[in-house]
Amino acid sequence: MLKTIKQNLRTDMLAKRKKFPFPYAREASLHLKKCLINNIVIMPKTVIAGYVPIQGEIDIGESLNCFSRLGAILVLPAICKNKLEIYFRNWSMKDKLEKGEFNTYQPSQKNKIINPDLILVPLLAFDKKGYRLGYGKGFYDRGIRALRKEKDILAFGVAYDWQEVSKVPRDEFDVCLDGIFTPSRFLDVKR
Question: Do 36 and 61 form a contact (C-beta atoms < 8 A)?
Fold first, then answer.
């Protein structure tokens, strides 16, 4: 039952995102950058995990570039499908990316694995309590849970404003984020 509810919401949100006009998506990314920069304090050598957008995800490339100029170390996710794990490999804006699992783009396997201090998490839907709906494989949920056992990390969802729903269907495996960034606001969530 829950699995079906989640899948129906995924299908609906993917269809909406596919129809979102590019000019508005570009403008939303610029507003998101302002929101991120105004709310996240970056110390030199802070390790920030970003992502390369797929399937219409909001683009955080300019935000990552800005964080890099402020002295952050950037990492991107690398999926290990066989182990059902997500790793984060170091990356700079000039590095070429390789095609990864599930039509993603990721740094080379030669790049060093570095655990992030802060993760910017893509999503399909979110709610005010800080829960997100992803693509259904659980990589980010498992990854965030494992990292939180090792150190105090922050995990923030990034999305378009219209991706907010009244309640994300969830179970005990779904991880609560520390907040959600949209082009118009920062939703601070107290875990």
Answer: no
